[in-house]
Amino acid sequence: MSADHPPGLDLDRLRALLDRERPGLVNGPLDGRLIEGGRSNLTYALSDGASRWVVRRPPLGHVLATAHDMKREHRVISALHPTDVPVPRPVLLCEDEEVLGAPFYVMEFVEGTPYRTARQLAPLGETRTRDAVLSLVDTLVGLHGVDPAAVGLEDFGRPEGFLDRQLRRWGKQLDASRNRELAGVDELHAALGRALPASPAPAVVHGDYRLDNVLIGPDDSIRAILDWEMSTLGDPLTDLGLLVMYSTPLGLPESPVSTTAEAPGHPSPAELIERYAERSGRDVSAVSWYTAFAWFKLAVILEGIHYRYTLGQTVGRGFDRIGELVPVFIDHGLTTLQEG
Question: What is the mean pLDDT of residues 223-235?
Answer without folding.
Answer: 95
